[in-house]
Amino acid sequence: MSLKDALREIRHPLYLQKKGGLLIPHLGSAEGLTSVAGYAPACLPENLGEPSFCREIGIRYPYLGGSMAKGISSAAMAEELGRAGMLGFFGAAGLPIATVAETADRLKASLGDIPYGFNLIHSPHEPELEKELAELYIRKGVRIIEASAFLALTLPLVRYRLHGIKRDADGNIVTPNRIIAKVSREELAAKFFAPAPEKLLRALVENGSITPEQAELAAHVPLAQDVTAEADSGGHTDNRPAMALFPTILSLAARLERQYGYDCRLRVGLGGGISTPASCAAAFAMGAAYVMTGSVNQACVESGTSDTVRALLAGTRQADVTMAPAADMFEMGVTVQVLKRGTMFPMRAAKLYEIYRAYGSMEEIPAAEREKLEKTMFLAPLDEIWRGTRDYFSKRDPSQVERSERDPKHKMALVFRWYLGMGAHWAKDGVENRKMDYQVWCGPAMGAFNEWAAGTFLETPAERRIVTVALNILHGAAHLTRANFLRAQGLELRQEEIAPQPLDIAQIKEYLC
Known about the structure:
By secondary structure, the protein is an alpha/beta fold. The protein has helices spanning 3-8, 51-57, 75-83, 97-111, 127-140, 155-162, 186-193, 198-206, 212-218, 242-260, 277-285, 295-298, 307-314, 345-358, 367-378, 382-396, 398-406, 408-429, 445-453, 466-487, 495-498, 505-512; strands spanning 14-19, 22-27, 38-40, 63-65, 87-90, 117-121, 144-148, 166-167, 173-174, 178-183, 226-230, 235-236, 267-271, 291-293, 321-325, 335-339. The protein has 22 helices and 16 strands. The strands form four sheets. An eight-stranded parallel β-barrel has the order 4-5-6-7-10-11-13-14, surrounded by five helices. Helix 4 (97-111) links the parallel strand 5 and strand 6. Helix 20 crosses helix 22 (505-512). It is globular.
């Protein structure tokens, strides 16, 4: 048996004996060995993170499939991850409320008591939509949400968290609804780790959402017990380096847990850049309670995107991503990380923001510039795009139309946001004649996964199934953790001796059982 084969047997302790300058592996026991040059304990993936996290959530593995908007993180992904002992989030952002409601019913029926989650994205320009979504989750009994892209805490978010808060028969505070917040800034992490703000509690009491007694209980629990430190990721991201961001937020969690005197642990997971056994092992080595994947899941067959996008993602390298203006926070100058290989979307989106900054209305755009926009990006007159946009917002959020009538610059922003939003739809639906306008949210983790999977069965998009990918990442992380245990004993190990390679699902399950 080779050392690499022995490291794969993660359920069994590993002993190394030196013979003639070679390291000979022995599994299970050191009995009969005259000397031991190194030892690595059994290392199960379920033990890599914070045990209390998996126990309280009700999952086997400390592994989360993060939310990707417009249903790209699909119901099928949540189902597959849930049945495999992990937690998947449905990407509700950007979808009609009716679609989200139908998906909530589907997951409740298909998964029953198996945990699953939904996304609640901050909507500063559409607060009523955020409120409606939070109320939907309460009505449908969705017990876990991923709060993402929040710039500040909002009333719907706090309302969701505190719905049903009470003391049990033993006097313990019970909060049926759980928030897992995704943040990339320490000041936001501090807000989520703190109890709900008194101002918002008073507002909830005044509107009858909670009782004064419930508001009093809320002062003793964090708004989010679990926070995902989001490093350099796809979509909304601050491009933060994981090795600087994560320890900072972990230290903050420990300090605030002491400061507030909670009865529960404050936990920190890591997302952004997680797509290989090495990155997963590094996250757990830093103390992550769990890991969260995103970009790599979009390339899996269960994702809610098109085969065209999956093929693009399968050819992505780490440098094939860039930042582009975000549709939902366009006027604020917020950007998202997207794929630049095979599409002109980032360049075209940046041009729209440049024009938005330079002019006060569509009428001020020079004729030649406007004609170029209509012929290359919109493929229609801007006035025609506005008519469709106005009809859309008349039904979804009439206040946007009212504001546009008073503010021509806002009208221009809504038209430009049409292109940005449609870029994601064209990609998701695989619209062939719009391939150059695809908006594909993606981080460098996608390239790292492709480099690791090169030359194996996972190189082919059709072979990338969400559970196969997830278990390979977890099993490989356990494999590397054992290898690093040996290296910490002063053993010199070559990379080719210890690097985990992708395994098919049957092999993985054999190692995990």
